[in-house]
User: Fold these one by one.
Assistant:
Number 1:
Amino acid sequence: MKIFNWKILYTYRLKWALAFRIANFKTKELYDMYFLITSVYPWLLPHYEAEFGKNKVSLYGWLLFYLGRQTVGVIGQDENEVDSDKKVITDRYGNTYKAYLFQDKEMTKRLRYLIRNYHCDIAIEEKDGEVTIVNRVMGEKVIFKISKKIKRAFRWS
């Protein structure tokens, strides 16, 4: 049974936070998690900020503790032979993966929406230096179906 199907690739420190780069092997998503403790602007009530700071990171926080998460790319399984001098992303079964980072914010938002609301299979296709991300939707998640029904029930006429 797989309990944790993700791996922390590395940690780094931003000016204002400690960040972790995480690879999720189930959803094939690459994201950053931010952790911040500050006493400058405490939020007295639990609060969510959709775009915080210059990097426009979404933050959840209360009092002095803040957590944030930002999708930065996807990982694709690498069938090619790997050089021994390069760092490789490997899961616990020994499969190797390659990271593809997004440059466009809209693409990351769309990918995050699909991963949260649908059962997806993400595949990477490389041909002549061009990279294509193929997202096969296999079905809606049950929670997403329930939330759509609740929204329809409480819609104003």
Number 2:
Amino acid sequence: MIGDQTVLCTFLYITHMNKMFFILLVLLFCSCKKEDVTVAESNNKSALLGKWDSYKSILENGEIARDGPSYCVLFNYEQGFELLGNDSYQSRYTLINAESFGTWTYTSDSILFNHHDLGRNSEPMSFKILKLDNTELHIKNKTGLTHYLKRAR
């Protein structure tokens, strides 16, 4: 009789522990939070379209490079750009009288600009997208300089 009770208790204990393990496993997976994604995976290219004006630049070490419009977001001292639906871009607010234009390409987490000079030579510049929403775009170049841009109206 005592042996049967021991076997029964052991069986109930193991069954109970298996249930507890399963519940803990489910809770673990349910409570794990995927990192917040600031760049939605779908339809980002259309979210990028429009006019963007810089308002701050920060160096890789966290030091503010410029608190106010950046003086050279892309190639020709522009303080912003307009991304057009035909995969071209135009500069905004250049500090010199040089029209900056070219093409741009979007990948899942970056923008590649191909600047075209007057001789139609192409010069690429790539940025990692750190944040993209309806009003803000934060992009980081290969040197670690991050440009903060807001959507122009």
Number 3:
Amino acid sequence: MQFDNGKVAFCGNKELRIDVHVGVKSITSIEIVAYKDLTGLKRLAANTITDPENTYWKGMLGEAIAKEELINDLLETASKRSGVPKKKIEVEWRGEKELGKKVPDLVMKNTETGKRIIIMEVKYVGDPENVKDFENRIAEAREEIIRYLNDERWRADHGAIVIISWPPEWILADVLYPTRVGKFNNPYIEWVSRKGG
């Protein structure tokens, strides 16, 4: 549903029950899309809306956004930081392969040497108005990436945290994510180096 103030809402029930945004006077349009027709980010966004307490869907959505929307920029920066040409960097999405295990979401390796050069942790925040949650995700990801960088199993010279806020309703309505969340760039990307690395 789209409202007269430009906001959108997604409804996953037959009765079309939704929370109406403050300041809304009328619905300007309603689009009905069958769940079975949704793919990729849109399907994950719908799952996140219909099961908002399920952290699995939020994690999968964050990783999918990084994979589909941000990967080229991440690879470009990884190449510059590591000195490894972009075409010689292999990307492994570990988070989706090893559900429930404490592993970095993404690992980049040099295809010639097999050496891990970059590890990444991706976090998702659904509400760009919730700056505190965004800040908490930054702190959480920073802690995790530093722990991974110093863990023998995941040691790499560089790590990165990626925090993205993109309301699932906006994804379904083809509205791009906001460029800022409070004082932070969105997506927020922070690169770190391992001590001694």
